[in-house]
Design brief:
CATH architecture of the largest domain: 3-Layer(bab) Sandwich
CATH class of the largest domain: Alpha Beta
Order of helices and strands: HHHHHHEEEHHH
Bound molecules: manganese (III) ion
Number of domains: 2
Helix content: 40-55%
Strand order of the largest sheet: 2-1-3
CATH topology of the largest domain: minor pseudopilin epsh fold
Distance between the termini: 21 Å
Structural class: mainly alpha
């Protein structure tokens, strides 16, 4: 079955003023759409791979034939990363609650230190990529990946991720990635992040 572009769960202007409408339109409607289209193209002659859930395909990336492996990493990663990105954002902001709040405090000291480490991971990524909160080896960890590499490829469950490609922020923030990363916390939908954490611990994310 072909992969499809999921609709945004809110209007393209819902994250204003922190993420501008035009960035959302281009990011979702063109960049994410291109990952979906190119993933489907890469899998056209591989019905067995096309039938697998995308997270499984990425976990089993070593089994993907050489000829299409990099296309799956780039476009399958791009598709699954952005699907998560839209899901964990929304108007509102706030803080995590419940077990995630407790475990963030236990693992990183407090919420402010957690935010500082995510920011550092995003700023430290040279070029394009992502900063992540992942659940792996039974614990929370902050990591960064280049390009569209998915944490699933290294058996890490992505709880939260922030896109630090220039296409995610350049229209509004130009070269000021740090300002974008600071503002991004205003549009995190912690209810969804809490849900992803519960699923990750249950082994179903
Ligand atoms: Mn992007």
């Amino acid at each position: 079955m072909a992969h499809t572009l999921p609709p945004l769960p809110y209007a393209t202007n819902a994250l204003e003023p922190h993420i501008d409408t035009m960035t959302m339109e281009i990011h979702h409607g063109r960049h994410h759409k291109a990952y979906v289209d190119n993933l489907n193209k890469a899998l056209e002659a591989h019905a067995n791979l096309a039938a697998k859930p995308l997270d499984q395909l990425l976990r089993e990336i070593s089994q993907v034939p050489d000829a299409v492996r990099q296309a799956v990493i780039n476009n399958g990663g791009g598709h699954i990363n952005h699907t998560m990105f839209w899901e964990i954002m929304g108007p509102g902001g706030g803080k995590p609650s419940g077990p995630l709040a407790d475990d963030i405090a236990k693992t990183f000291g407090d919420f402010g230190q957690f935010q500082a480490q995510i920011k550092q991971a995003g700023l430290g990524r040279f070029g394009s990529g992502w900063a992540w909160l992942v659940f792996a080896g039974g614990k929370l960890q902050i990591v960064s990946t280049p390009n569209q590499d998915s944490p699933y490829m290294t058996n890490q469950a992505p709880i939260l991720g922030v896109d630090v490609w220039e296409h995610a922020y350049y229209l509004k923030y130009q070269n000021k990635r740090a300002d974008y990363l600071d503002a991004w916390w205003n549009v995190v939908n912690w209810k969804k992040v809490d849900e992803r954490y519960a699923k990750a611990k249950a082994g179903t994310l």
